[in-house]
Amino acid sequence: MTVTSQVVRSATNKIADELTTESLLQLANREIGAIHVRGYYPVDIAKEVAQKAINHQALGNYHKQHTSSVGRVYMPHIDTKWDTELTKKYHDAALPAIEDVRSMFHPYLSPIDRVRLQLQELWPTGANLLRLRGRACFVGAFRVFQPTTSEFYPHNDAIDQESDAPEIEGVLNQLVANVYLQVPAEGGTLQLWLREPTEEETKVILEVEGLERDSVEAPVVEIHPDAGDLIIFSPRMLHAVTSGQGEHRVGAAAFIASKGPQEPLLFWS
Which of 6, 66, 177, 245 is deepest in the core (most CB within 10 A)? Predict the structure, then answer.
């Protein structure tokens, strides 16, 4: 199965600073490059939970060569690797993992729950948790970058490269929402190329989950987020994260599938 692609391959470098129906529709249509809302989540709560994520018993690492330096709490869908048993394990753990992540912020609303609620209200047809072959997906993964050693090489993310479930039929674009819980003062910068990878680049990304930095041009946009910030962009286009210095970079993330404004958005991690 292939995801329908009716959006243009590139986006403008305009960055919206508010999360609204208009900015969401513009981002989904690639009329803007990203949405960056500063101070989206309280910094004191964010930093407290960042430490919980760093020390969480379910902290593991992504499985491919160029992502293995980055930690994640609970298995993301990409690590199911088209394997039947791993896919079952992912879905079996999905709802308990959502509840555990939510409990780490209690008695406060978790940042990904806030994103989910707002997008449900702002998107013309609402937003729901993604189910693949009828089974609930996990959403709200923590990503933990170790000081100095962790980085994301230039890569992209696309749900049709991970699953052929019938529920992804008709996806036009994929977004990702990141709420930053802790960010080092130096490094940990988000880099956006605002273009999809070429066919040859895609082959390399699928093999090792990243391109060598000297094989691509300079990024079009670089954003150094602060703790508490929200950034939403299209991960179907090339993006990367530079290594940070001095402390961990920790964020909570959710992928978001768009089938157009006539269909609800769909969340997963």
Answer: 177
- Rounded to two decimals, the pTM is 0.94
- Burial (CB count <10 Å: 0-12, 13-18, 19+), residue 261: middle
Q: Is 255 helix (H, G, I), strand (E, B) or coil?
A: strand
Residue 125 has pLDDT above 80, yes or no: yes
pLDDT, one tens digit per residue, over 193-213 is 999 999 999 999 998 889 999
Q: How far apart are the first and last CA of the chain?
A: 20
- Using H for helix, E for strand and C for coil, what is the string for 72-118? EECCCHHHHCCCHHHHHHHHHHHHHHHHHHHHHHCCCCCHHHHHHHH
Strand partners, 10: 195
Quickly count: other Cβ atoms within 10 Å of residue 153's Cβ. Answer: 23
Length of the chain: 269
* DSSP state letters, 17-68: -S--HHHHHHHHTTSSSEEEETT-S-HHHHHHHHHHHHT-TTEEE-SSTTTT
CB count within 10 Å of CB 3 equals 18
Contact 179, 101 (CB under 8 A): no
Nearest Cα to 176, choosing from 166, 164, 189, 190?
190
